[in-house]
Amino acid sequence: MRVTFLGTGLMGRPMARRLVAGGHQVTVYNRTREKAMVLEAAGARVAESAAQAVEASPCVVVMLADAAAIEAVLFPGKDEPALAGRTLIQMATIAPSESKGLQKKVIEKGGDYLEAPVLGSTPEAESGKLLIMVGGTATQFEQHRDLLRCLGPQPLLVGEVGKAAALKLAMNQLIAGLATTFALSLGFVQRQGIEVDMFMEILRKSALYAPMFDKKLQRMLERQYGAANFPSKHLHKDIELFCREAEPLGLDLASLEGTRQIAARALAAGLADADYAAIFDIISPAAAASSG
């Protein structure tokens, strides 16, 4: 099938490559053209503009940074892509209210819309093992399930548009909470002179363990945060989205406020593009550890 892929960044690039490998005729577009050109060798066609890219296919997959970027690409005010008769599958992490707003605009333009945010990072995108949460109708889900299976083995229909976006934010709030609490415990045992291997041995045998701890452990120990699978700026963005959507629901966000501040401080410290494991530098500064 002919598919257009908008957004070829950290996640979009391997996802688009998976669609090409799955036998689809893929047209790609990225505002920074160089990021899209690497897919030409894989067999994708690189469009000159978003409008050209959208017009190339009946199905348009969107994996842009945030809702503002999506709006800028799809609804620029002039030379807008022709969405009439096309299905838009929105796969980035955005707020439920933002997703519903996009659905309304796409339908007004004569198109169809569903959301399919993913859980996983670059390795899962490359291997086609993303966890895909779909917000839409049962009919839409059946129509696009085979396409989504190129990216994740078992797409799950969560409910109407907005439900999958909400579930994804709930998952990313857990990422933020687990990362900060693990970093705090790791810094604490280090400064108490307890061997990290012993700490991890006990942790792995307990009900407290999460696989993320081992995924981020070495980065934190070595304080090496390059080649980010999930940059700190995206973690911060998702925390802000969660807080904005959760506050009107009457939820107490006190437990997340500290994490929110730490993520903001990571950005202020120049760690925006670093892997989110870099919050360890905020929680357990290297200088303080050395002097201790």
Count of individual beta strands:
9
Structural class: alpha/beta
Nearest-integer average pLDDT: 96
The sequence of SSEs as H and E is: EHEHEHEHEHEEHEHEHHHHHHH
Q: Percent of residues in beta strands?
A: 5-15%
Task: Describe how the helices and strands are arranged.
Elements: E1 2-6, H1 12-21, E2 25-29, H2 33-37, E3 45-46, H3 50-55, E4 59-62, H4 67-74, E5 87-90, H5 96-108, E6 112-115, E7 118-119, H6 122-127, E8 131-135, H7 138-149, E9 156-159, H8 163-191, H9 196-204, H10 211-222, H11 232-246, H12 254-268, H13 279-283, H14 286-291
Parallel strand pairs: 1-2, 1-4, 2-3, 4-5, 5-6, 8-9
Antiparallel strand pairs: 7-8
Helix pairs in contact: 8-10, 8-11, 8-12, 11-12
Characterise this structure.
The protein has 292 residues and is of the alpha/beta class. It has 14 helices and nine strands. It has helices at residues 12-21, 33-37, 50-55, 67-74, 96-108, 122-127, 138-149, 163-191, 196-204, 211-222, 232-246, 254-268, 279-283, 286-291; strands spanning 2-6, 25-29, 45-46, 59-62, 87-90, 112-115, 118-119, 131-135, 156-159. The chain has a six-stranded parallel β-sheet with strand order 3-2-1-4-5-6, sandwiched between helices. Helix 5 links the parallel strand 5 (87-90) and strand 6 (112-115). Helix 8 packs across helix 10 (211-222) and helix 8 packs across helix 12. The longest helix is centred in the middle third of the chain and has 29 residues, at 163-191.
